Amino acid sequence: MRVGPSQDEIRRQNLGALLRHVHVHGATSRAELTTALGLNRSTIGALTADLAGAGLVSEGTPKETGRAGRPSLVVRPESARVYAYAYSIEVDRLRAARVGLGGEVLDRRDLDRPRDLDAGETVPMLAGALKQMRERVPPESICVGAGVAVCGMVRKADGLVRLGPTTGWVDEPIGAALAVELGVELPVTVGNVADVAAFAEHARGVAAGCDNVIYLYGDVGVGAGIIAGGRRLTGHGGYGGEVGHMVVVRDGTPCECGSRGCWETQIGEYGLLRAAGRSDARGRDALLAVFDAADRGDARAQTAVRHAGDWLGFGVANLVNIFNPEMVIFGGTMRDLYLAAAAQVRSRLNETGLPACLEHVRLRTPKLGDDAALIGAAELAFERLLADPLDAA
Amino acid sequence: MRVGPSQDEIRRQNLGALLRHVHVHGATSRAELTTALGLNRSTIGALTADLAGAGLVSEGTPKETGRAGRPSLVVRPESARVYAYAYSIEVDRLRAARVGLGGEVLDRRDLDRPRDLDAGETVPMLAGALKQMRERVPPESICVGAGVAVCGMVRKADGLVRLGPTTGWVDEPIGAALAVELGVELPVTVGNVADVAAFAEHARGVAAGCDNVIYLYGDVGVGAGIIAGGRRLTGHGGYGGEVGHMVVVRDGTPCECGSRGCWETQIGEYGLLRAAGRSDARGRDALLAVFDAADRGDARAQTAVRHAGDWLGFGVANLVNIFNPEMVIFGGTMRDLYLAAAAQVRSRLNETGLPACLEHVRLRTPKLGDDAALIGAAELAFERLLADPLDAA
Hints:
homodimer; alpha/beta; Arc Repressor Mutant, subunit A; Nucleotidyltransferase, domain 5; 5-stranded mixed beta sheet; 15 helices; 43% helix; globular
């Protein structure tokens, strides 16, 4: 443990803190930065000059304020020039984007993904999307790396996808394969889709400022990205947050993971379509059709939605008792289910949650919508830049 | 956010880091401190002199090493002079101790606690134990405060016991009441017993060096102290870790908390005694009698223990899937149950846990035994000293 930081370390930390501030909050005046970072004006000026010299920020005069006196210069992230590539590998689609510093999606490509597509076939499709986007990158841009969100359990150490119960992938080195396909000397960071979506909503979404958050994400299965004490909960190997495989019915319905009675057998795509008498249907559109039928008075669809909503509330209550979060966010198909069955969710949650754990918890839908996974994947790549702006750029 | 620390802050951090090192690791040579803290020899010398001047550490020559050359001076915590008071409020007993810097129990008092004892009657008993211990404190000792471990949900902000399902306490300001009874100008910090026991096992017990730990603690009910990414998981209000109230049987047996089918209805004292046909019995001795009867071949006791062991493995598997810990520790009555039914625990865990989450998880019993709660309570008080040694002493 090195306790006393060196001058170099302090400067690097300060550069990172300033760049992070404008990355998260957008254009900020020097005066506001002085207050927010607790540094004096001349230090802010010197840090800004260094970051501007590296092409990461620019300075300019603010819009007319109407106030007298010389306005404080405004520091802006170079969102159009500094970017990361972001991927989201979902069960039924692949998405690729170029995301600028500051979190703006500059370019994007969406592709359908057949459910039986293996990892070896998936990677070239992602590389192709990148190739198309690369042709449109303005000159003198700075790429800081690539981030990948994937529905599956991702090993923290090297980004290996250990298991994707809903894709059937086992031990797929997605990050390494993509790095080869991209053919560039850029780091590729891989994360679970629920984890990175939580990261994005915590950094710049509905959970900004919340230190204890559960982001429940449904695709075909269900997982959670968890923020505890302001930090991402990863667990020992990176597999933390597999709440969809919390067993809620002992010796219940077989699950894709090999166990039985997992929570996602009740609230995931397969369980809900089965309960609605539509076992042959697949995909989010099929789920939305069930919610729509329930809305229009279809009794079987209503029963299925109420049943799944009750189980959603049941599992959320368990998580609320275990984590005592201040916010639960429902993303992906969990957003659809929550909106269709909010009464059942709240009723079961209130019945089963401990009163002290319930009193400050807010239930929310994502602010970044489906883009949370892409923006979060880009954040994985930006993290490296923010840790050491001048060395990484 | 202040990014650049001042010289004063750096010195305070260094003092705290040195004192924490000898508090956790015991007597340490100056040479080892230089390496461990990443500071040069003259800084270590100056910091040690400051701490010795405040009476917190002493320096001396080490025991004979057999090596040539002048030995490096050894820095020792002043364990006999610097101390905290520690309390553990359990369902059937009250414990009080005086714990020295370094974690050594210097004096202790144990008292029986009738189950219907209310908070107003409990506090004077604890104050009486402290009065007895205080008479034996050597002159020129330094008391840094008091810490309290309590079986119940403790509000982080002020130590209010919101709910003790097994004591029947609701909204009891234990910390404030104790501060009045103690009649001293010392801070009193209150924490949940599982949380503080986990803290102690993480600081100086079986989980030292582990960053992701679940300490499962059973008294009459069941709770967990959780270490995630090296830090205590508290949740928003301080109520995190109420794993005993994870519902495992929907609409199951009524629980003391007001809900139904909570995990502790299957593995806690009441459930296990009921399953063994001993609903009228109470207390840890009654539980131990069931384990003993099972050992001696009593069929009903064996069935009850196997049933509870299976449920213990079931819940641990859920927590392993959610947290991906590297260690699960079984403390209090959960230690007894785990040791009596380890085969059932492991069998169900292996059946239900995700392979990636299982591959590095170790199941352990506490190193500090039942003293973990007392030592952890003292750690709550020492935390203040370690944050700012010269100001707090």
